[in-house]
Protein 1
Amino acid sequence: MRKKVIAGNWKMNKNAVEAENYINELKELVKDSTNEVVVCVPFIALCKAINAAKETNIKIGAQNMHFEEKGAYTGEISPKMLRDIGVEYVIIGHSERREYFNESDETVNKKLKSAFEYGLKPILCVGETLTQREEGITKAWVTNQVRLALDGLTNEQIGNTIIAYEPIWAIGTGKTASSEDANEVIRWIREEIKNICREVAENVIIQYGGSVKSENAKELFEMSDIDGGLVGGASLIAEEFAKIVNY
Ligand code: 13P
């Protein structure tokens, strides 16, 4: 049985003190959950969040990283820096990074390899635009993103990659993919992983993301292939995020 992983992605929201208060509130609300609970906070809030999450079942993640360990990359944060302060998870290749910060399948692939090298658990994001869905190329697009991202990873690394299927048209729009549509794309992703590495495909955790909220979490997460969610807006309020975790 695959574990459900419910991760919050705060994006560019909350400062360090707000993060600490949030974790202190959330820890009581999710303490009995058997799901993996992850909160991905802005860089400047990581230390306080990690401290507040000590001796709880909440794991802290970053939302991005550079693929190099160090060097002349002004403004960037390295995987080693994240690991050194106790970060466990890192989101790689979110559609907002691909769209606004020129992340390509190639840099996403480099970042995935680097995340594993430094002991971070990557959450790889893939997903199609509305135009691509209307053109009927969702399957080709998403499976290609997955193939390019996983290129050159070991079987073990592939097995340990969490994938978040996030249709871009469902992000922050209030429009959720139907649970059947989301499940179908996630099955395609799993089939693609089978083509790459049959042994681990059934173990790979594949989440859904895009307007997940407490009202739709149960229906989505109970689908056969949806192993939890990557939650944006609804993760900003501890009480609402806890409802999603405890769906
Ligand atoms: P929303 O839940 O706000 O739609 O955001 C989804 C997302 O992008 C999570 O990474």
Protein 2
Amino acid sequence: MAVSMTQSVEQRIESLRRILRQHNHAYYVLDKPSISDGEYDKIYQELVALEAQHPKLITPDSPTQRVGDAPLDHFEQVTHLNRLYSLDNAFNTNDLQAWRDRLVKQLGEEAAIEFMAELKLDGLAISLMYEDGLLRYGATRGNGQVGEDITQNLRTIRSIPLKIPVQGTAAPPKKLEVRAEALMPIASFLRLNEDRRKAGEPEFMNPRNACAGSLRQLDPQVPASRNLDALFYTGIIIEPGPDTPTITTHQAMLDYLASLGFKLNPVRQHCTHLDDLEQTIAQWDTQRHSMPFNSDGVVVKVNDLRQQDRLGYTAKSPRWAVAYKYPPEVKPTKVLDIELSVGRTGNITPVAVLEPVILAGTQVQRASLHNFDELGEKDVRIGDTVDVHKAAEIIPEVLRVHLKQRPQKTKAVEPPATCPVCDAPTMRKEGEVALRCSAPKTCPAQRANRFEHWVSRQAMDIDGVGPALLEQLMERELIDTPADLYTLSVNDFLTLDRIKEKSAQNAYTSIQASTDRPLARLINALGMPHVGKETAVLLANTFYSMDALCRASDADLVAIDGVGPKVAESIVTFLADPDTVLLLEDLKAAGVRMADEKPETKVDASHPFFGKTFVLTGTLPTLGRQDAEEKIRAVGGKVSSSVSKKTDFVLLGDSPGSKAAKAEQLGVPSLSEAEFLAQL
Ligand code: IVH
């Protein structure tokens, strides 16, 4: 009876997983949702509940297991089974022809050479290993021979299958290596940087750096929150299975990967002649600008895999492939004005107002000059003709001035001694390039930007209240601090210009709805310098309530992985400010939620394993790995994947790996399962 009960639970769990995998594939790989979010959630929650009741049945390939592993303390190295080469470049059609001529010379005049052209996406090369259909590990390219094991971060990318589903009755290859470009969509990059800018955090240079930075995080929560994607461009069958087809062309390999559920680079084209190839490359130069990802060229590969083998490799790159690079687009235009904009934290940024030009597919009429140091170095003046381009093909940037064309009398824009909006003196903190307005409390620009931040989607998400409405509310002195928003009535809105009953009602309702946001949003909404959306999540997940956060000391804050001394100091100073104290009291009185529910585990701080870091190695006699990890976490311990000086215990099973030796070397005590259970 008991057995058949568990079997049916097991079957239900497997069938839920299968259904979720199918919908995931439709949504994240094919971009064709096959179910509503609500229905998906229902199935997902059923699986979560069953797995919670039967933790023994949790397997790493379950759709519930994408995020959730504890932060690592470092990444392990991985030696690639097959080296990841780089590519030779071609910058024009001559280079392409020369490449083709070399192919012909090596393969013989009579060889019919066909090509695959693929848009070269500008991200990060990754390699994934699947054994019997299960994702075993994923690694960065590194130096091509040795990379870093970033499996736990790659698992958070929804388009990467944790398990290759069985196709009908066809089993996946026994061992398959696949390679992809890990990417951050341009839109996500822009949003991330906007958040970071508003929070006074350093911005990423381009989507590639943002993607690389995300995948380098030891805490998988970070990449999980950043909407990364992976587009696959090749596979190597290391050990076929009974149903693995014989593949003789690159194109067939791509089709096979798609059939296994991998997401391919959609911009690819089979070409039989160099002419086709050149045409394709020219066509894509415009098309590429409407893709969600950055691309900087076209990868051209010999399609026939036997020909590839014959051509082989040079020291650095395959002879059978080449990367055609598009020339960067630079255009001259006129500087009509240089405006000074004042941000939420008081930063004063010079912005060049340009005569409109089309760059990388969109019209550009403003370009940030970042700060007065840069403005001075480039010596940009109103009336100048300048070269502009898009940095990383996204962000408009002034490259240089055409000095020969400089008109007779131009005036350089100097760093202002007073704020261009409120006239308060400006200041510059030591060690910072930013020039700031010194009146955070009264400067209308800073105040307006802070209110806009408060209602923004990343913060309290008040969608019925936009910038125009906020401006009127401030002008009429209906709001002074964000807490005042919560005292407004529908009638207050009706006294404003151009506001009808419906939008007044809408504004009121969305403000009220925002009283119940999770703590992380409230923390982000406060707009503390150096605290953005992600730090806010870390703080909420550590303290669970605003009160607890307010009581936190510098030391408590620095103890959080991801919070440094500068950020900690900023938080403590901000929260101790009498204005902040008052604001928080008013918000509380207005009914704004100040805490998250703490996950209900009663952890006993006197338990010998409380706060201790464990590393598991080898096979345990009775406990599954998941079981053991859960038991450790349940008593307040942590699990890490690698041994270091910070490791407190190694839980030692049969045939342990190199971790046991490392532990011994570092003098980390090890426990057998029996000892572990006894102390538990
Ligand atoms: S093939 C040995 N195909 O470009 C063959 N690479 O400069 C090398 N890349 O590290 C890879 N899109 O990160 C290939 N469709 C594509 C690609 C692509 C982007 C990147 C990849 C690689 C780099 C080589």
